[in-house]
Amino acid sequence: MSYEPPTPPAILPSGVVNTLNESTPECLRDVATYAEELAEHKERETRLEGETDQDEVEERADDFPDDVPSKATITIKNINDNRYYYWQWREGDKIKSKYKGPVNPGE
Question: Is residue 55 over pLDDT 50?
Answer without folding.
Answer: no
